[in-house]
């Protein structure tokens, strides 16, 4: 069970956790170590609180609950809101970690109607490809979320393979985050081969787990009623 925290982890616990702490992707400073076996994730999803609602729903979904981090609660701390989640790396020592985003589309249909132009997404875009923005986008130094998400999908293997590799970490090394343009089949295969180190037993276990995940998604009441 999660600790009954009213503040971040104790100094001793935090010091020990930070020795091995790393974040592969997601919003910078979006995570913090909490109790043994849990992390705090800064709330996202806007006023609708979508992320918390999804975690709560999947926790109740018998098909999917074993495939998502355990959700514990929402926490208010110093004016910020966090959700407390299971730390899937707790108990591992310098593990192999890969962050993969599944799906042939990574945005909701509702994003199409959002026309707010954001400078942070413009900065992310030019970090990948300085020539990607149009002349008007360069002048405004801002792009919409839909424009950025479509750009990311076109730059990666999302559309062609149904997933993209966001980042990875190998034992003894720093996080590898320059994978945003891994796109064609050879690039994807080489990246996976580097990560899996040609361990066929691990490949077979991973393949079996992915097949199980697919069957669970197809049978999931949540996925049958949501995008």
UniProtKB/TrEMBL annotation:
One of its GO terms (molecular function) is inositol hexakisphosphate kinase activity. Belongs to the inositol phosphokinase (IPK) family. GO terms for cellular component: cytoplasm; nucleus. GO terms for biological process: inositol phosphate biosynthetic process; phosphatidylinositol phosphate biosynthetic process. It is an enzyme of class 2 (transferase). InterPro entries: IPK, IPK_sf. It comes from Bracon brevicornis. This is Kinase. Its EC number is 2.7.-.-. Keywords: Kinase, Transferase. SUPFAM superfamilies: SAICAR synthase-like.
